[in-house]
Amino acid sequence: MSHSTQKAMQAAIQTAIVGVTGYAGAELLRLLVHHPRLDGKPPILAGRIEPDQASRGGIPLGEIHPSLIDSRGTGNLRLRQFDWQLFEDLGVEVLFLATPHEYSRAAVPEARRRGIRVIDLSGAWRLDSSAHRAVYAFEDEGSTDALAMQAEAVYGMPELHRHAIHQACLIANPGCYATAAILALKPLLAAGIVDPACGIVCDAKSGVSGAGKAPTAKTHFMHAADNLSAYGVFSHRHTGELLEQLNIDETAITFTPHLLPIPRGILATSYVRFREPQSQAKIDSIYREFYLSSPMVRLHNHHLPQIQHSVRTSYCDIGAQVASDGHRAVLVSCLDNLLKGAAGQAVQNLNVMMGWAEAEGLE
Amino acid sequence: MSHSTQKAMQAAIQTAIVGVTGYAGAELLRLLVHHPRLDGKPPILAGRIEPDQASRGGIPLGEIHPSLIDSRGTGNLRLRQFDWQLFEDLGVEVLFLATPHEYSRAAVPEARRRGIRVIDLSGAWRLDSSAHRAVYAFEDEGSTDALAMQAEAVYGMPELHRHAIHQACLIANPGCYATAAILALKPLLAAGIVDPACGIVCDAKSGVSGAGKAPTAKTHFMHAADNLSAYGVFSHRHTGELLEQLNIDETAITFTPHLLPIPRGILATSYVRFREPQSQAKIDSIYREFYLSSPMVRLHNHHLPQIQHSVRTSYCDIGAQVASDGHRAVLVSCLDNLLKGAAGQAVQNLNVMMGWAEAEGLE
Amino acid sequence: MSHSTQKAMQAAIQTAIVGVTGYAGAELLRLLVHHPRLDGKPPILAGRIEPDQASRGGIPLGEIHPSLIDSRGTGNLRLRQFDWQLFEDLGVEVLFLATPHEYSRAAVPEARRRGIRVIDLSGAWRLDSSAHRAVYAFEDEGSTDALAMQAEAVYGMPELHRHAIHQACLIANPGCYATAAILALKPLLAAGIVDPACGIVCDAKSGVSGAGKAPTAKTHFMHAADNLSAYGVFSHRHTGELLEQLNIDETAITFTPHLLPIPRGILATSYVRFREPQSQAKIDSIYREFYLSSPMVRLHNHHLPQIQHSVRTSYCDIGAQVASDGHRAVLVSCLDNLLKGAAGQAVQNLNVMMGWAEAEGLE
Amino acid sequence: MSHSTQKAMQAAIQTAIVGVTGYAGAELLRLLVHHPRLDGKPPILAGRIEPDQASRGGIPLGEIHPSLIDSRGTGNLRLRQFDWQLFEDLGVEVLFLATPHEYSRAAVPEARRRGIRVIDLSGAWRLDSSAHRAVYAFEDEGSTDALAMQAEAVYGMPELHRHAIHQACLIANPGCYATAAILALKPLLAAGIVDPACGIVCDAKSGVSGAGKAPTAKTHFMHAADNLSAYGVFSHRHTGELLEQLNIDETAITFTPHLLPIPRGILATSYVRFREPQSQAKIDSIYREFYLSSPMVRLHNHHLPQIQHSVRTSYCDIGAQVASDGHRAVLVSCLDNLLKGAAGQAVQNLNVMMGWAEAEGLE
Asked: Which one, A20, B249, C202, D26, has the greatest CB density within 10 A?
């Protein structure tokens, strides 16, 4: 019996997605319907819909995302009215939330009470420190539910927390910028070679899908096209994730996001200074060792990564170049903000949580 | 008699352009034909053309740049075979070179011998230090002509060298990236408040016109569109200009250019750390004072500049944001690489050299 | 005394713009502040603003359109609270409306009562036939005011109605698509050589600025970028202008607009069949004669026009190619939807109305 | 035993690709390595490479197409020196040619002599009529080999020639534009309702990948971006395919391609006039019946298709809108020029040839 048959013969788990109408939600659905371990069990799709749509059994996905119409019937899947009873009736075991963080703060405690494991793509449960959480101004900050969930939540970056994710019931899927920055910087910081006195700079650039589906002045084609702008200088929400995961002080890093005139993709250019001069070979080997067992990181030796090669993959591509003086390095990391920066990493977390191969369903 | 009439009555000088077929050359022509001081005297256009084209009196500009066809006859101007005698016959006083640097190295000494003043848009004469010039590998490095020209050349950034430009006969028009970086960083460095131990970072992004008109793998739409890539890490040619104009050591700054998927425009994000904490008000006042008499710099207080607002202008837009800890600042500078980064700055240099209003013909 | 001085000595007229916050309004302002005949008299800018803004004397233009900040002070012009008394006090003679058509329907009768001439960029007064107007569902259809204005309005396409425009007090500035289509088709239809039985096809494509400044699902970067979509099939509002100006029946032409992933520019590809075979030379000469005295039309003989060469000019570029069988022709016309398709044509109409050179201030 | 296991147990066939360095070749490789019927047997990749590269066993694919590097090892596949013996040694049964048509003309007769079935993505064997072939100026036109191959070749559009493809040994994969135009027009022409006297118009727009990977003035970002241009008016090579497959005369259709500023995707807007008035319902039913068993055509009833929904799929999306007068229809068809317009259709042809499910490996 082939390996793939064995897999198929295990009972597939039942997943659900809330937030399938957004960009990340659509990518998540695309990944889950093609996931070899979930064969035949597409995710339940739920959200807030109009009563007359609910009475007709929900909205066919093809009306919301025409590009998802295919001959396996993905376009016929229905977005139904959200209802915990529905999830119970259908035996939902893992719930993906591709929702605003306020929604996740409210929904996750209930999901956990019902024994549903959650992979939350929002920023609701990513931060340990209340000081860092302040930027979100959570209304339930300090409540019993919130404290319990925060204690339970695991930061869903398998490259750093593989073991904890395997045992987790609530996974806080990382921010897209944070993923690009942390994966580039962590190996060098962990190696203890970066000079803490000289600050780290992370200059990041993201495509417009990162700004969400709501039509705004910022996402208007006339503003985004033929343009580049910095925003959130010294104040972007993902900064807290950087500080916590890299274990550094706020003044130790300056993170500046920019809006790129492309639909998707992030490129982060990070700048570090070393305590002692380092060779290119040494830096290369630090990355190689750090990511030895990480299938979703691709290391680039000869060429720096570029957005085009990472987009529509679930990889994070990393390249590092050391100055000839040995004191400085430029790190370039690229990923697709909707995949390794959102839905792809969510599926990677599912794989780790379930004990499946980490890259399964991600190519 | 109106002021504009008085101007018109002074005899207009005769200019010439070599290199009008390129992007910067076309912008230069556009500026010169509309320049109020050159009314009625369009520049002579010269280059290498085919003998049969030369025998027909040259190539009408409209065939090379259809968008330059207008009802004043700009499209009928002719690109003629280059010839020093032609320039002498027509009384060319100021020659603009929008040519490769090798060409400028050869042509400038001859132009100067003939008493023609030169504004050179290439990198041929920008650098004082032979170490910095090494990146260009000039064939005539160290020759008598080259040494004489280097001694004579003035770095054509009016905001820094207004007085010298006014008296110059050879102006080395700055590089586009260098202009964006230097104008953002110089006021703070001149104020002596930047910590030299912690390195400066300049993360710059440029539209594709900066890569020139030659079709290459890099300028192919399929590579440039929907993409972002870093290049020239630790090795870009404009680094020498930064070091000389900012008067800092090579290790004190890390400059990384990126290729943006837009036709034109540069945004440079620069990062500095201060010796002592600084207030936003202090930094704002430093910029205001430094650029008090500089009409081609626009300072932004409330919003950071973005590429879209600078493109198709000859301004450099600058905004600075100080961290609440007072130790760090992010500087954003934007310009049009073909205008303030090339042709616009060249005309600004012409204005300063001739004693005209610095912004004349630049709006 | 030079020609330009004589012009300057005539008293400049006072213009006003309502709707400067939009894309076409901003282009209009840019043209008017640089118009040689309006030297020193920038347009009055009026609209609906907040009371506290009004109490501070209005909103500086530079806050609305940062790219309009220049050293002549355009950024300091103020958008003030609209008020007819203000216009009277300041002696407004010509009012440009870059407003929604509902606004124009209400404002124009009052402006005319006050003796102010109007150039209206909206669709309010373009159509003679009530059947064609039905698509706009004007609330005041058939009112005395409306009938009077309709009788007075002149379709503002100087290439067709130069004489009437010169004498007009209310000019209905044409639609952007309509301008591209009519200017391409009119010469051949006027020559009587197009076969009426075989329908004409006009397949038009426009950049996103044509869809207006409001953020919508359609203007979201994620929808517009990397995409092309047809819309308004058999139902676009500009169809009525085509029918009236070309003097043909509804079934004689099929007009289909498409949304292009570019900021600005229209290319219309029109297809006609001839009654009798025609030569390329004959067609070329028909166009040449028709546009002999039309400075804002550029005819292309050897190459078809493309959007890039027309954008940021006020020209309409036209090229025609006849099939070797002589029975069919493909006509390509290009323009900038914000210039020849809006603000540029408005200024061209001003020039004609005032008896100035038609191209003045348009290069 | 599951269905998918049964498939896997049939011996997979050995395929090969010549031309994997191009855009269509890369997409073809991506499809073939993920094709469930070819599990474990990636295609042999061959081409002209440098001797030193050949001596090292060829070039790793990851160096040519970095985005193809994945954890299944696709990036490690090697492009080897082309050699018929190699194909024989490795038992190549089906050869895909993603090569220039001149190459295919020379290679196909030899492949057939060696008993290798060929799916040729070039224009070498698509045309029956020597008049239509004239546009290619084949050097071997009329040779014995060429005549034999032409007789054997089947036009590889399964929606029209499913039965012949199943039995074919040489499949001429259709042109990208031709696929979009033919699939939109064929149902109506086959139904005999289109008026032949009034010409058909097909106005088609394609992304830049259709122009190939060679850097040219046309594919330069500065030309392609923010632009739209018509080309090949009355002379595009795909016209012959339209005429033959639609069985109409040259004068009956006018086909005009345009270059869109997007990487990939085609939208064709086709215009027909009917002999007798038709209802929307009638037209809808004609399409539904025609494509009843065609899994790679998606029909759109309520919304017209747009490029964004077709790109990165192997579908052709078709929508038709009938005028209220019943005499005219606008047909919009969209596809990805590299997939349904090239590699996707090639795999669809492989599926039909092998008797596999037509959509297999295409989602």
From this structure: C202
DSSP for B239-305? Answer: HHHHHHHHT--GGGEEEEEEE-SSSS-EEEEEEEEBSS---HHHHHHHHHHHTTT-TTEEEESSS--
Residue type, C43: P
CA A321/CA D146 separation, integer angstroms:
54
Taking alpha carbons only, the member of A87, A89, A98, A88 closest to residue A29 is: A98
User: Are the beta carbons of D15 and D94 closer than 8 angstroms?
Assistant: yes
CA dihedral D310, D316, D317, D322 (to 10 degrees): 140
Q: Please list the residues that pair with B221 across neighbouring strands.
A: none
* Tokens coding B107: 């042509």
DSSP C219-269: TBHHHHTT--EE-STTT-TTHHHHHHHHT--GGGEEEEEEE-SSSS-EEEE
| Torsion angle in degrees (nearest 10) through CA of C202, C207, C211, C212 | -140
Residues paired with B258 in a beta bridge: B205, B230
Domains in chain C with CATH codes: 3-173+343-354 (3.40.50.720), 176-335 (3.30.360.10)
Distance CA A28, CA A49 (A): 20
Statement: the pTM of the whole predicted model exceeds 0.90: yes
Smallest CA–CA distance, residue B323 to chain A, in Å, is: 6
Distance CA C80, CA C54 (A): 6
Which residues have CB under 8 Å from B228's CB, separation 6+? A205, A260, A262, A265, A267, A306, A307, B205, B258, B259, B260, B261
Token representation of residue C132: 């064609």
Q: Are strands D253-259 and A59-60 parallel, antiparallel or unpaired?
A: unpaired
How far apart are the CA of B234 and the nearest CA of chain A, in angstroms?
6
Can you point out the beta strands (E) in D194-260?
200-206, 229-230, 253-259
Q: List residues of chain B with CB under 8 Å from any CB of chain A.
A: 197-199, 201, 203, 205, 223, 225-231, 233-234, 250-251, 254, 256, 258, 260-263, 265, 267, 269, 271, 273, 304, 306-308, 311, 321, 323-325, 327-328, 330, 332
Cβ neighbours of residue A113 closer than 8 Å, sequence gap 6 or more: none
Strand partners, D230: D258
Largest CA distance in chain D: 69
C-alpha span between C346 and C119 (Å, rounded): 7
Determine which one of C176, C202, C316, C334 is catalytic: C176
- Phi, psi of C8, deg, nearest 5: -60, -30
CA distance C358 to C349: 8
Q: What is the CA radius of gyration of chain A?
A: 21
Query: Min CA distance, C43 vs chain D (Å)?
Result: 31
Per CB-CB distance under 8 Å, the chain C contacts of A23 are 222
Tokens of B345: 């700055």
DSSP-assigned states of every residue in C17-57: EE-TTSHHHHHHHHHHHT-GGGTT-PPEEEE---HHHHHTT
* Residue the block writes with tokens 């309010």: C124
Nearest alpha-carbon partner for C220 in A311, D263, A28, A212? A212
Q: Identify whether the C-beta of residue D30 lies closer than 8 Å to the C-beta of residue D48.
A: no
**pLDDT tens track, chain D, 363 positions:** 344 444 444 568 999 999 999 999 999 999 999 999 998 799 999 999 999 999 999 999 999 998 899 888 899 999 999 999 999 999 999 999 999 999 999 999 999 999 999 999 999 999 999 999 999 999 999 999 999 999 999 999 999 999 999 999 999 999 999 999 999 999 999 999 999 788 999 999 999 999 999 999 999 999 999 999 999 999 999 999 999 999 999 999 999 999 999 999 999 999 999 999 999 999 999 999 999 999 999 999 878 999 999 999 999 999 999 999 999 999 999 999 999 999 999 999 999 999 999 999 998
SS3 C152: helix
